[in-house]
Amino acid sequence: MYSAFVNEYADIIVYMNFIKRSVGKVIAILFCILPFRLVRKLVSLLPSLAKFVPKDKLITVTIDNSFFGKMRLLLNTGFGIDSSIIHNGYYELKTMLYLQHIIKEGDVCIDIGANVGAITFPLSKLVKETGHVYAFEPGPALHERLVQNIQYNNIKNVELFRCGLGNQNTTLYWDYVEGQPGNANLSTSGKVKVDVKRLDDISPLFSRKINFIKIDVEGMELEVIMGGLQLIQSNLPIIFYESLVYENLSDGQFEKQKQIIEVLSGLGYATYEIDMREEDLKLDSQLRFIPTYFPKLPANTLAVHSSKIDRIGL
Predict the structure, then answer these.
(1) By percentage, how much of the chain surpasses pLDDT 70?
(2) N or C: fewer beta carbons within 10 Å in the chain?
């Protein structure tokens, strides 16, 4: 009898999932047909419908969770990071749990490669009114939406800079990554010029005690670090940076990632990650940090100075 009950329950779950998918497909089709002003109205009344909005549409979505708090965000349904926020309420659960574990009220944080604010806004919530977030985003459209979202939500503890960061003050070009809408590289040629500065030359940072730096700049992580060595040495912040390592990475990324490790270890840093895969994590997962070693690095690496090791519970 128990076996029959389990099988019947499983059949019900399968049937309910089928109904859910079917309803979702119908809503998605309707959203392609209806006037977009009506779609926006429906989403404003029922925010969960945002996931059915066609791609490449700007839509205002209400987010309400422990990572962002309650916010209204203008998002592009065709961009990967935006889409993840629309569907899940956040970008990457693993990154969100890193931040919740590390960031404290009153911290001063730097978000380099802020994009649509997937990290900026959770940082803003965690540091609260006594903390501050400096966000850097050179992409014209992304920067404009960040400004709008900051204004929408009356956020006072985020300061936004429209420039890229590197190891010299120069001008480069904004170039979207093919097949990755919303992501871009800074290159030496193109149509859209962007200013690039050294982190060590950003004057508002001179008098601040920096606790945390996040760097996700599509392969320019080393340049950002080299352009901010003075700030890093004087503050010894925790650094969370993209660290994809493959031997066949273009533009010398394998060697650049190796050099990042050498530079940071020379300053007294060691690297860590959470000992669970993204797909195994839950909102209430208990985190344990384990050392990482080049070249077996995760997609994102946490670099912690020996004097700040208590921040990750070691």
Answers:
(1) 88
(2) N
Is the pTM value of this prediction over 0.70?
yes
Q: Which residue has the tokens 């966000």?
A: 135
- Residue 215, domain member (yes or no): yes
In-domain check, residue 84: no
Output the six-digit token pair for 292.
């990482």
Give the count of domains, the chain.
Answer: 1
SS3 labels along 199-227: HHHCHHHCCCCCCEEEECCCCCHHHHHHC
pLDDT at position 66 over 90: yes
**Per-residue confidence (pLDDT) for residue 182, from 0 to 100:** 67
Surface-to-core class of residue 178, CB atoms within 10 Å of its CB (0-12 exposed, 13-18 middle, 19+ buried): exposed
What is the per-residue pLDDT across 243-263, written as a single tens digit (0 to 9) for each? 977 555 556 788 899 999 999
Instruction: Kindly state whether residue 64 falls inside one of the protein's structural domains.
Output: no
Helix axis angle, 93-102 relative to 120-127, nearest 10°? Answer: 30
Residue 97 structural domain: 91-312
Residue owning tokens 């209806």: 34
